[in-house]
Amino acid sequence: MPLLSGWWTFPKAEKPHICEVCGKSFIHSGTLNRHVRIHTEEKPHVCEVCNDSFTRKDYLNRHMIIHTTPESHLCQLCNKLFIRKVNLDKHMLTHTGQKCHVCEVCGKSFGRKSILRKHALCHTGEKPHVCEICGKSFGQKSPLTMHMLIHTGEKPHTCEICNKLFRFKSALNRHLLIHTDEKPHMCELCNTQFRSKCAVKKHMRIHAGEKLPSKVHIKSFGQEGALNVQMSSHT
């Protein structure tokens, strides 16, 4: 082995096992299998005491300390257990609603320091999470994970009624309104209801006096299948 600046140098190990979702590569197939659970949200390791589930066995082992350690700290409001007092204190903020971490730029407050750090990226413009395929960058990891679905073509969200597939849960939720005929978005001026907020914005242009593009109106006649297509302008 060549000697470089007092250190032995070793060739980089090959990483033949590649995640099909995010493109990350691993040396061992077992490591890849554990990694994939981040995307599938599978949690096969279940605690026999409280039925909490975990993606990895070592996470379960760490959790078991809560049940075996008599000095564990109990939340009096929801009975959740914590090994360390500092973790219980952080948890209590979810009940009290206290937000002690304040952004120095805009004054917005947060219950946890980690959330404040993520928020600060919107002011600095920093986008540390980069797509290795197209180079697009994101301020947080979760948008990058969703972005990767565009490259992989994966559509993990399925409509249980018509089996149509969607990349994003939000798109599936909008699609479901077609089946339920629900129209949760209402015009505040005329009370007309719409399935999407985008449709409301387009409708509001009518009240603003803006002339909309021509569209096709389909009028049905007495004989089945006979249609008369007329072009008209919406005024």
TrEMBL record:
- Superkingdom, natural source: Eukaryota
A molecular function annotated in GO for this UniProt entry is:
DNA-binding transcription factor activity, RNA polymerase II-specific
User: Gene3D superfamilies under this entry?
Assistant: Classic Zinc Finger
Domain (C2H2-type) ranges: 17-44, 45-72, 73-100, 101-128, 129-156, 157-184, 185-212
Compartmental location:
Nucleus
The record's annotation in PROSITE patterns points to: ZINC_FINGER_C2H2_1, ZINC_FINGER_C2H2_2
Matching entries from InterPro entries are given as: Znf_C2H2_sf (IPR036236), Znf_C2H2_type (IPR013087)
Q: Which residues form a coiled coil?
A: none
Q: Does the keyword Transcription regulation apply?
A: yes
* Membrane-spanning parts: none
A GO CC term assigned to this protein in UniProt: nucleus
What are the record keywords, sorted? DNA-binding, Metal-binding, Nucleus, Repeat, Transcription, Transcription regulation, Zinc, Zinc-finger
Q: What is its main location?
A: nucleus
Q: What is this protein called?
A: Zinc finger protein 732
Organism (species): Stegodyphus mimosarum (African social velvet spider)
